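Journal club prep, notes for RB
We'll compare a predicted complex against what the paper describes. Inputs for the NAI case:
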Amino acid sequence: MTAIAIIGAGAFGTALAVTLAQQGPVILWARDLRDMARDRENRARLPGVPLPTSLSLTQDLADLSAASIVLVALPMQQLGAFLARNATHLDGRSLVACSKGVDLASGKGPSALLAQACPGATVAVLTGPSFAADIARGLPTALTLACADPVAGPALQAQLSTPALRLYRSTDLTGAELGGAVKNVIAIAAGMVMGAGLGDSARAALMTRGYAEMLRLAVHLGARPETLAGLSGLGDLVLTCTSDLSRNFRFGRALGAGSAPEEGATVEGVATARAITALARNRGIDMPITTMVAAVVGGELTVADAMTALMARPLKEE
Ligand SMILES: NC(=O)C1=CN([C@@H]2O[C@H](COP(=O)(O)OP(=O)(O)OC[C@H]3O[C@@H](n4cnc5c(N)ncnc54)[C@H](O)[C@@H]3O)[C@@H](O)[C@H]2O)C=CC1
Ligand SMILES: O=C(CO)COP(=O)(O)O
């Protein structure tokens, strides 16, 4: 019996599938397998990583019926529509949300979308600092597995950990997924700073103040501060704001440098900046960097004007 299934054969879904297949059978669902089955490699999203024989591929969601754990690794803005069509295939299992972001249509994170569409499921969140390419190469990685259920949480932690992938357990789903959502927005801002040539000192200031607004939003929405200080918040913020491997960082850097961003890359921080700006405005939470990123990606502000506006804010206590 296949115990673990993964939905979404992007870079992250494929990397998780390759890693978890070292421990037992895994089934990976893609809406379009293209040449993956023939090549035994996901050349489009995770080139150079062979797919092990314990990993099977399918385009038919009915093939996932034997899996007790389903990891959902779709881009955030695709998740709601996918669930509207396919929730009956997923209900009643342990569903692990792997997307990072906030849904523009509903203002919800991935775990809330899963719980709403699949009321009989046990929902968890897997998040933290990890590039798909690192996981797939078996490099050491530590992530947060958040699940409110006191029995399912430890079981999932054990089943999804490997010698190279170390999962820390939490019951704070709100904090875990808001850290992963906001860090992408701040990474775009960090990229803008570096692309515009404003320097490492400016980036450190922006990361720190970005962390402050991540914490402010998450605590307001019921998260525990220590969650944000962990892998899913600070850990992922540091990784994403400082690495060329980050698509959000590279996107921001292109904007800052006045060059064209890469085509076809999943850059979750773009829509999430807009979703969180709306959420923060409705709740009266001050999130100046997120609001600035939303305005720049929406074409309402230039990077230079956004930086000037941030520096001109009234002086305040830290
Ligand atoms: N790539 C990474 O290093 C990491 C990614 N993530 C998160 O994982 C999520 C997925 O990202 P990636 O795998 O990197 O994206 P990706 O850009 O590599 O792949 C996205 C995949 O989703 C598929 N897809 C898009 N819409 C779909 C739909 N409606 N139905 C079925 N399949 C659909 C595409 O065909 C593509 O294969 C994002 O939320 C991202 O933030 C989290 C941690 C690390
Ligand atoms: O979430 C990630 C690292 O933890 C991947 O970051 P990007 O989506 O910016 O590439």
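Talking point for the session: The chain is about 50% helix and 15% strand.
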